[in-house]
Amino acid sequence: MRIVSNDEPPLSPPPAEPSGPDLSRLRRFSVDAKPPKPERDVHIGRLAAFVGAALFVIVVPWLVFTRVGDSGPARPRATVSPSVSASPAGSPSPTVNPEAGVYELVGEVECVRIRIDAGTDKEILNCIKPGVRLESDGEMREADNFVWLHVEDPFKGIDGWVATQYVKRVS
Fold first, then answer.
1. Closest CA to 153 of 69, 93, 94, 45
2. Tell me: the pLDDT tens digits for 8-23?
3. For a 10 Å CB count at each end of the chain, is N or C smaller?
4. Between the CA of residue 119 and those of 16, 39, 80, 113, 164, what are the distances in Å?
C-alpha cells in the first residue's frame, strides 16, 4: 500500500501519442469543387483579352480608312467595250460612242466619289484620289444638276458613275 499525501497529485496514465498527422489545418473540398485557378493564369487571360481588343480597335479602322481611294499596285482589269446600238432601221451596223475612252480624275478634292448610279444621293462605291485613270464606255446621264459619266472602278473592277466636273478625257 502506498501512502499519498494531500500535496501530491494522484497518479494518472501518461498522455496518449497522436495516432497520425494533425489534420485540423487542412481544407476540405467537396468532390465536385474545382481547385482555385492560379492568379498567374487569370492575369495572362486578362492580358490576352486586352491585347486582342486593342488590336481590333486599332487595326479595323486603319484598314477601313487606308483602303479608301487606295491606288495600290496595278491589278488586272477588264476592258470596257464601246457601247453598241442598233440603228432605228434595224440594220446591223454598230456605232461607237464618241465619248468612250480613258479619263483621268481631277479636282482640288481629297478623293472623287464613284457612285452606284448617277445622283448625289446614290450609294458611294469607292472614293479615288485625283490622278487615277478610269475607262468609260461614254454613257452619260444628267441628275441632280450634274452630268454623270459611266466608268469602271480600276480597283474594284465594278461599274459606277462619276460627276463629269471631276474628270478630263485623256484618250
1. 69
2. 666 666 666 666 666 6
3. N
4. 101, 60, 22, 11, 12
Q: Which CATH architecture has domain 101-169?
A: Roll (2.30)
Number of neighbours of residue 154 by Cβ within 10 angstroms = 17
| Amino acid, res. 103 | Y
Q: Is 2 left (phi over 0), alpha (psi -120 to 50) or beta?
A: beta
Residues 6+ apart with CB under 8 A from 166: 105, 106, 107, 109, 112, 130
As a whole number of angstroms, the distance between CA 132 and CA 96 comes to 24
Say what the alpha-carbon torsion angle 40, 45, 47, 48 is, to the nearest 10 degrees. 140
